[in-house]
Amino acid sequence: MTDPLFPGATIGILGGGQLGRMLALAAARLGLRTHVFDPVADGPAQQVCDAATIAAYDDAEALAAFGAAVDVITYEFENIPTAALDILEGLRPVHPGRKALAVSQDRLTEKQFLNQLGLVTAPFHDVAGPDDLTAALAAVGAPAILKTRRFGYDGKGQARIMADGDAQAALDSLKGAPAILEGFVDFSHEVSVIGARGLDGSVACFDPGENLHEDGILRTTTVPARLTPSQRTDAVLLAARILNALDYVGVMGVELFVTKAGLVVNEIAPRVHNSGHWTQNACTVDQFEQHIRAVAGWPLGDGARHADAVMENLIGDDADRWLALAGETGTAVHLYGKAEARTGRKMGHVNRVTPLR
Amino acid sequence: MTDPLFPGATIGILGGGQLGRMLALAAARLGLRTHVFDPVADGPAQQVCDAATIAAYDDAEALAAFGAAVDVITYEFENIPTAALDILEGLRPVHPGRKALAVSQDRLTEKQFLNQLGLVTAPFHDVAGPDDLTAALAAVGAPAILKTRRFGYDGKGQARIMADGDAQAALDSLKGAPAILEGFVDFSHEVSVIGARGLDGSVACFDPGENLHEDGILRTTTVPARLTPSQRTDAVLLAARILNALDYVGVMGVELFVTKAGLVVNEIAPRVHNSGHWTQNACTVDQFEQHIRAVAGWPLGDGARHADAVMENLIGDDADRWLALAGETGTAVHLYGKAEARTGRKMGHVNRVTPLR
After folding, report:
1. Least Cα separation, residue A311 to chain B (angstroms)
2. Pairing of strands B346-355, B331-335
3. Structural domain of residue A71, as residue ranges?
4. B224 and B288 assigned to the same domain
5. pLDDT-based confidence at B65, cuts 50/70/90?
């Protein structure tokens, strides 16, 4: 696909969660239709899309019908099964592409890729099996974190090793999954850059945001982040280098640790990112529209920000505060249409904005 | 209904056009579901709503099922048939209410209501039948405009009478529909106030916008409008007076002529309004979310504006410029998902914003 999609065309979205929902709403603003593929019915995205396929990711027939029904395919999560991709790629363009998925699906591959680009990551060592942990600890040192190579998110699939004696318990908790051992990074705070690359190779980044996590889950993102002007420039250039190296199309989240020695890349996510939700109320073109523009072959927005912003996630019971939050001046409430407020579940977020004057 | 609707509740929307579409998108941001009722399938709103009923407005069974399936009912157009309202009001709250509809459905009732409130309108005279036109012309004088009392929009159902000799042709063009004759108002420009009133009686207005029409159709709205500080205050107070008098719940558009003698009310629309589309990219809570908040019993947004804005309608072939418009910096493109770009058809709009700094 080299021509932009016309209004009325259909974007296929793999995944029916809140990111898919907000992508679908952004597509609708641009007159584009959406077709959501997800194994579970009545998810956040299906409530707002034009068409939905409820099927498993290994249902070849459903995938083929979905591919035939859409004009381009994107996704809200990076753990797309390879076999599903094989089918879909044969039918329609998939953005972001295979290289970005391969790199971001696997913590080992990701870190190797970033190091090859000349970017700094946490020290790490492959832990292919139980026998490798001793060598890994010797190389990386304790304290460290054992992380599964694949399928980790929001702090899941991770175990801390504060001293060598914790090693066996950490290994046990990962149940034999291939892992890497990551050394600790002495950082003052975490920031993220939400970058986008268009089909024409143009790159646009939003201003970096500063992230605060609790229990492994993003709690708030504050913009502007505490960064020196040169750190800010570094952060954006670094994101652009990753986007270009992957021949990327779409929005990417790049999480960075700020250290005395410079910026350290924590991880990349080949999709719209929770730390970019602030753009909805502080930018003319937000991260969701930016992603849709990119995968549709449209020109990117410029990423300019008209307000300072603090995004706060509403997790579990937090969402019970919806009425009080809706009554706050200068606060935009975003809720995801999820019925059940389970502990740790992202139910919505608010953006508190202060216009730049 | 006095309690606010909980997230997950369903807003029923009568009408599946672009206003319904943008209402549905705003409701989705707040975690509310939408169910659209319209006689025609695959309209702009149906592409983004959670459920749709395709049925005629005189289909009592479909109306009853729709009413039973939703928690509150609103609409995107004022010409709801009375019989449909009779059914729906018996089932669920309908906002804005009957009084607002009765007043705004009929140009004669509307002007009488406004005059009783002490507000200035164009001079007018009832033209119940052909025999009344002579008396009306004598009272109002030529030039004047003969308008059908009901079902007029975007300049339809109107005929100019520049001199007495035009009277018969004007009458013929209205095909015997009950009408009023309106005198010309000597105005410098038109502005509109988009006001909202909550279920608790609170009122919030957006800054007035200045409207430019071409061929009877809104072409652009520019904010801020050219108004003196006292005119601006008058405009907002006047809108609030109308909202309160109607015990109104929801967003209303109030069109005003600016004259040397003060503000003259042109007409009111009991719904979100084309001249309020600029709020989408210049306010934290836009007119669509404001309307949803009102009918759901949520607190209103404050109407604050963080940017100057020019809204331009994309009418008919204008929408062919979508790619160039998407490439403009500081411009937000909104397209309605309509397949066919007929002459005079509103296909979308753009908001060009300049942040206040």
Report:
1. 14
2. antiparallel
3. 10-94
4. yes
5. very high
